[in-house]
Amino acid sequence: xxxxxxxxxxxxxxxxxxxxxxxxxxxxxxxxxxxxxxxxxxxxxxxxxxxxxxxxxxxxxxxxxxxxxxxxxxxxxxxxxxxxxxxxxxxxxxxxxxxxxxxxxxxxxxxxxxxxxxxxxxxxxxxxxxxxxxxxxxxxxxxxxxxxxxxxxxxxxxxxxxxxxxxxxxxxxxxxxxxxxxxxxxxxxxxxxxxxxxxxxxxxxxxxxxxxxxxxxxxxxxxxxxxxxxxxxxxxxxxxxxxxxxxxxxxxxxxxxxxxxxxxxxxxxxxxxxxxxxxxxxxxxxxxxxxxxxxxxxxxxxxxxxxxxxxxxxxxxxxxxxxxxxxxxxxxxxxxxxxxxxxxxxxxxxxxxxxxxxxxxxxxxxxxxxxxxxxxxxxxxxxxxxxxxxxxxxxxxxxxxxxxxxxxxxxxxxxxxxxxxxxxxxxxxxxxxxxxxxxxxxxxxxxxx
Length: 449
Prior knowledge:
The chain is an alpha/beta fold. Helices cover 43% and strands 13% of the residues. Among the domains are: 129-318, Rossmann fold, CATH 3.40.50.2000; 367-449, no CATH class. The chain is built from 22 helices and 15 strands. The longest helix has 17 residues, at 369-385. The model has no long low-confidence stretch (mean pLDDT 93).
């Protein structure tokens, strides 16, 4: 989004950037940067509530455009919880999918009265498509290269792909010379998915491990080389965090077929014959502070897709090509014209059924605005302090206080460890939103009824 705003700035849309941390530590700077703004765009993770606070605290009049990127996740739930009492007529929520909008409107019914715009302008940073397609290697051997791109973890159901790989090679060994190979690229997030453990499983089951190849996470500019090496992308996620599946759009742009679980936004993007049914786990209580696999994908269905169906590339990327223009239009439009840009919410039946089954437990958001303002104000010193930006109190002191009150000590310990190798600011620490949920005792849970 930053790239888009930088390159679309002009007479019709005069864009100014500011120092987010300084806004929260210097009221005079906040007034200077925001007093004459018609619209403020929040794309700094789940921290939009600070713009709402500044608008009320400094009595300013700008409208606020904010986004959500994960679904049943404490950070974005906390953002909406805190923003809710201060929403004004043209304040706009950007969602990456209809599914994401459906989840948030189910949890926060009041959002239905304010504009929500399906806008995820990721394609502005994609390379020229012809150049991407020209990189595609033509697979001339008998092997079919299965691909997985993204966080390699249990909530993404990556272990299911290892099982699938084993079963495919076991079942076709006596029928043909074709082997199935799995290329995976991403950050190893779950210990059970470590490459050496996958190799051990393959050796035990097949007597070989050369059907699996792992590559560490790559930058957005480098993923296209990976996608050029595979024949089909597999995406078996049932993660609570899922709101889109960006890799589905990237694979589509690269001319690849996709087979995935019928979860989250997949039914908006992928043809029904390539959507694998999901068996959700009902009645378990999940913490919104963590990622979870909510069920299992039908591997037999996925197997039949690979063995029996013609694999055709999906074209879902085409529907996202208009999103940059849609966002720019929304930033310069208000009132009834803005609402004409916001489409009615239409969901697939599988999405309806999943959303209806969500039972969430969190504090009531029917609190008074003054209480919300006080809570946000109390979080600002923490937000700055955990970045080492409060001169009067050392960052070590904030960390010690956080350790003393966290309800999730293991996760907080990971947060602290990660900051040892970063510049310790919110742009690369991540997870600071979760730690502030601990500070505010905002600890939502959910189950699937």
